[in-house]
Amino acid sequence: MSVLVESSWADDEKLNIVTEEWAPYNYSENGSLKGFSVDIARAIAKDLKADIEIQIFPSMRAKLMLEGNPRTMMITMLRTAEREEKYKWVGPLVDSSIYFYKKKGDPLVISTLEDAKKVHSICTRQAGLVFDRLVAAGFSNLNPSAAKGSSIYKMLINGRCDLAISDSPLGVIHVLKQMNYSLEAVVRTPVKFVELPAYIACSKDIPDAEITRWQKALDKIKVSDAYKAMIRDISDK
Known about the structure:
Blueprint: E1 5-8, E2 15-19, E3 27-29, E4 32-34, H1 36-48, E5 52-56, H2 59-68, E6 72-78, E7 88-103, H3 113-117, E8 122-125, H4 129-136, E9 142-146, H5 149-157, E10 163-164, H6 169-178, E11 186-202, H7 208-222, H8 225-236
Parallel strand pairs: 2-5, 2-6, 8-9, 8-10
Antiparallel strand pairs: 1-5, 3-4, 6-11, 7-11
């Protein structure tokens, strides 16, 4: 497994920031870490003259590191009631919604969650928030054989499942472009399964005063022209 590491702004005690492949918010490309949330974390650290290290790992390993290692943050994490007391939070970075998708030209009509439960197969990630919520909602038709979004939507386009669910609309656009597929290769259904704000999750050993400094720096960034440019950038990709 390859690990990308980036260090900067050595002033205070180092913070370890872990992330996963979830484009366009955080992802690796040609040996570099990129994405909206990565840029936000860099901007906050620069403003605070904070010493950070960013590493990218598989999703479950990143979460284990957040929970087991000191002075650790994770980007990007959806803030849920189940996760609320497990971490401290900086955000929101951006709102994010996740929908079911079908293959272009498929006459399948999906208007409700019950419609989605009736299809033969739904491709999703092997683990994580979406998978856990699908199971909790009573879905028994899941195909969780994929570890990343590109595999999920490739399976959908190749007819190996009826529906796919994994990424936000911006993430789906990014994945399709990476795979050189037309943006019309898949169709978003009207069924929204997850609508939650995206945050930086922080280990609970990080002092509240430090969390507050990060939050104030984020709040300042979010009213800047630079933040508006970041939003435009991911919207155009």
